[in-house]
Structure formats: structure tokens, C-alpha cells
Amino acid sequence: MTRTLLATLCCLLANLAQGAAPERIDPNQPAYRQPEDMVLTPDGHYLLTANRGSGTLTIVDRLQQRVVAEWKVSRSLVHLTLLSGDRLLAIDPVQQEAILLHLIDSQLTELGRVPLPYSPVRAAVSPAGSQIVVSCVWPRKLVLLKLDDEQLSVEKELILPFSPREVLFEPTGQTLLAADNFGGKLGLVDMASFTLRHVREFPAHNIRAMVLSQDQTKLLFAHQMLNSLAVTNSNDIHWGLVMSNDLRWVDLARVLNPEEDFYREGFMHPIGQPGKGGGDPTDIAVIDADQAIVTMGGTGQVGIGKHESYGLFRSTVGEHPTAVVVSPEKDIAYVANGFEDSISTVNLKTAKTSGKFPLGVQRELTERERGEKLFHNARLSMEGWMSCHSCHTDGHTNGLASDNLSDRSYGAPKRILSLLGKADTAPFGWLGVSDTLKAQAHKSVELTMHGGKLADEDAQALATYMASLPLPPPIDQLQATRDQAAVEHGRQIFLRQNCIKCHAPPKYTAPELYDVGMEDKERNRAFNPPSLRGIGHRDTYFHDASVTSLRDVFEVHGHQLQTELSQQQLDDLLHFLRSL
């Protein structure tokens, strides 16, 4: 019996067992796929892309560089994990599911799916293949999945003190590394007990890739660093002082040992140099024992660097590269272009882009989709050092302070505000300097990013995108910790303390500026109060990001309390705030 016939028979039997199957679609039908992740099958034959925009999985013949099949799997796919037995796991953040698939040749079959918590984004499989862990951003959860024969089930959940994104097993499988989606935290999870052993902290944000070196002794990760001591003028931007983009090689043993400084004996490739920034790294692939390739989502480029050799060989690929894999022969890198529905090929010997081919016909984009492209485009900034996303990670915030002209002066760094759910909370900025999101887009690009004059239609597209960004559900709802009686009591305390003077429901903000007893370094005393909606998802507070605990806002600083609160009253007030 031929392999093709066997594959067809397997698909038919699986379809009967599951009662459903992915639908094969025509890649010539216009769509906006937005490839978010890409893997190479173990035999090196096919490239598989997970398409965020269309919920499809595209199968590409690697050597012929052509699409051989596209399958409608779900509403959105953002990650693929290869498993044993021609299986793979796909993550859908919209339907909140992990989907177990079977691939033989270009035939795709669904074996099962399991519901996940809100906002799943990444998955990692243990070296032995017996454990799968999925990261979920907004609930701050890791989910341990059990794969028994062809049955997928949730075994355990673990709540972290930060929002996880990248997850990676170290070689023995005893410890899982979980990286912060927004800030610079790295969790060490003991897999025997599925408990958090330790949290490492380091100066970083937007940790967007994490892989092991070829000999598995080093950890490579890509991230950004915002310097609140620099100011967003042309000098500090040019020299990479405001926003740096970094590819780091660090000793894995030191990372796993909380007593060690894991930066010691490490090495950093700066992704960017004066005159040529490298905004928003998105993925890393190891080439050999000493070399790696990193994608720069904000500038549409890749960089190839050798360990302990300064600088990167850079080459232009497509719009917003999101994923990169290296051929088995180590001669070609394949790069998925997230906003272009294409794959670029990069010759690793010459460090030059050698070609590009489409994943299908791309439809015309909406204004919101054009705004999303601009939001992630570091070329809008001076020399390509940063994009809007660099500070407003996933539309939220990296929690840091930036010294820019949003307050009409330098010298008083301000906490970067979340953009989620902000469309109806004008004016914008700590001093309320912008009446509309469009006006704020002009100010951000022209004054903060020094990117030159922004066209009105681009400012409007950015505003449309920002206005569409929804708030996630409240943290207590996502973590199933809501105490409704405490929330109601906390609401009464909120009213009695006259918090509604500045944070009036239902927006929990106000359009005016208020003097609440705080002063920035430029002696500004009146600020526009940020909305309290979604406050449970923040890690820093006040205009200068000086407070890192919501409890400390009241317990240490007594922020605008009319009367002293008992411990129980404060607990209830915090319950209420986390319910917003």
C-alpha cells in the first residue's frame, strides 16, 4: 500500500473518530493570513506556518518553495509545537484552545482539542515528550497538559506573579523557564511539583524569543531595554541610549542557579548601531555552535551574529518578520513575514536575502489592519530604533517610565500608560495634552520617536487601531479569585473615600487635571488620572512608576485616603479594584 493511500486512510479513520476535520481551502482565495509562527517538519520536507489572521495552517514544500496545502483549523493560530508521531500542537488564542493535529505528507487531521484559560500564546514540550506547558498572558497562568495516547487534557494550572509568554524546558526537563511578556522577569518552574521555584529579574522588556544553543549549555534570548535616564531627543535616540534591542547569550547553569549572576560571562549582540536601529526583535534560530539569526519585526530585517563577535550581518526581508527556521543543511534561513503573507529566504553563507515567495493571495487591508502595521513599524522612528509596540507591548505597557515630551518637558520620566480600553478616556497623557488618539499618534511619532511628519491618514489608521484594543477581563475573574462580598464592601469604601472625585465610574477616570499631593521632577503637580479599569493587570503605579504593588499605593503612600483603613477594609478595597 502506498504512503499516500495510507495517509488518506488514516485521515478518513481519524475523521470518523472525531466527527470533524480541518477544511482544505484554496490559497488563491484572497485572505490576510498574518503568519505568526513557523516550524520545519522533522524530515525537513515541509515548512508549516500558524496564521493568526485566518486561523489556517499553511504547508509549504521547502525545496520547491511553493504552498502545497492550506487548512482551516480554527479562528486564529499563533503557535505550533512539534510532537512525536507526526503530531503537532496548535494554539488558538481566540477560541482559547490547544488543538492536537496529525500530519502525513500534506494531509492534516484533527485528533482533538482542549479548552485553555484566556489568552494562550505559547507552548513547550518536555525533552521526553511527556509534558506540555502552555503560557496564558492575562490570567498569568501556566497550564500543564497531559497527552495520553491521542487524548489531550488539562492536568494542572500554576499562577505566576507576572504575565508569561515564552516558555522553554531546560535539557533535563526538570525545570521550565517562563519569560515575562511585558517586563524583565524569568520564572524557574519545578516540573516535578509544577510550582514556581524562583523568579529572576533583569533589565529587559518585550522578551520575544528564547532558545538553547546547539550544545544546550547557553540560553539565547532577544529583548528590548528602555532607559528612563535617557531623553527622547535625537542625540539619545541616535546612540541607542533610549531604546536598545538585544540578543543575549548567557550561561544556562547560571540562569538555573538563583545564587548566580547570569549576566556574568554572558555576551550581548546589540541589535542596532548609531544610524541603523534594529527595532523589535521577534524570534531567534540557532545556526550552528557559534551562530544565530534574529528577526527584527520593526524594521523588516534579520541579523546574523557569531557568539563573542561584535555586530550583526543584516539583510532586509519582508514586512514584520515573526518567525525564522534554519534548513537542515544550515545553508538557508526561512523567515515568515507576518504582515506580508510571505516567506523570505536568506543565504546563510552570504548573509543576504536570496528570495521571497507568497503564502497565498493577500486581500486589501482595513484601516484598523493598516494601523496595526504602523503600530509595529519601527521605521516610523528615527533610524528604526523603536515602534509604538516597543513601549506599549501588545497595546498594553511595559510598566517602565519614559522621559519624553508628553508632558511638554524633559527631566520628569513618566510611566507608560496602557492603551487597552482607552478609546473613551480622553484626554490622553499624564498632563492631558491630547484630546484625540489621532493627535496623540502625531505627538508620539513626531516628538517622542522623532520620525518626521506623520501623514494624517496614517495617524488616523493608528488611532483606529488603538481605539479597537479591548481590555482583558479583570484579573480576579481570570484567576477565579473573586470574592463578591468583598468586592461590594470595597466598592462602598471606594465611594466613602471619595475616590470617584478623580476616578468616576463607569470610566473610572475624569477629563480634568488634579493636584493629589504628588509632584514630578519638573514640579508639575496636576495630573490627569488614569482609568482604573484593568488596574489589576498593571505592575507599576503613579506617574513615575515608583510603586510596584497596588497594596503599597495605600498602605505605604496612603494615596488620597480620607480616613485610615483597617487591614480588612484595605483588603476589600483591593478586591474591588481588581474586579474592574
Describe the secondary structure blueprint for this structure.
Elements: H1 3-18, E1 23-25, E2 35-40, E3 46-51, E4 56-61, E5 66-72, E6 79-83, E7 87-92, E8 97-104, E9 107-115, E10 120-125, E11 132-136, E12 141-148, E13 151-159, E14 164-169, E15 175-180, E16 185-190, E17 195-201, E18 205-212, E19 218-226, H2 234-238, E20 243-251, H3 252-256, E21 267-270, E22 272-273, E23 276-277, E24 281-286, E25 291-296, E26 301-306, E27 313-316, E28 321-326, E29 332-337, E30 342-347, E31 352-358, H4 367-375, H5 388-391, E32 401-402, E33 414-415, H6 437-448, H7 456-467, H8 475-478, H9 484-496, E34 514-515, E35 526-527, H10 550-555, H11 567-578
Antiparallel strand pairs: 1-5, 2-3, 3-4, 4-5, 6-7, 7-8, 8-9, 10-11, 11-12, 12-13, 14-15, 15-16, 16-17, 18-19, 19-20, 20-21, 22-23, 24-25, 25-26, 26-27, 28-29, 29-30, 30-31, 32-33, 34-35
Helix pairs in contact: 4-7, 6-7, 9-11
Tell me the span between the first and last alpha carbons. 61 Å
Q: Would you tell me the structural class of the helices and strands? A: alpha+beta
Gyration radius from CA atoms, angstroms: 24 Å
Helix % is 10-25%
Would you tell me which CATH topology of the domain at 367-467 applies? Cytochrome Bc1 Complex, Chain D, domain 2
Q: Any idea what the shape is?
A: globular
CATH superfamily of the domain at 367-467: Cytochrome c-like domain
CATH class descriptor name of the domain at 367-467:
Mainly Alpha
Question: What is the mean predicted local confidence, pLDDT?
Answer: 94
The largest sheet has its strands arranged as 1-5-4-3-2
Largest sheet: 5 strands, antiparallel
Q: What is the CATH architecture term of the domain at 367-467?
A: Orthogonal Bundle
How many separate helices? 11
What fraction of residues sit in β-strands? 25-35%
Classify the oligomer. single chain
Contiguous low-pLDDT stretches (5 residues minimum) are 1-19
Number of strands: 35
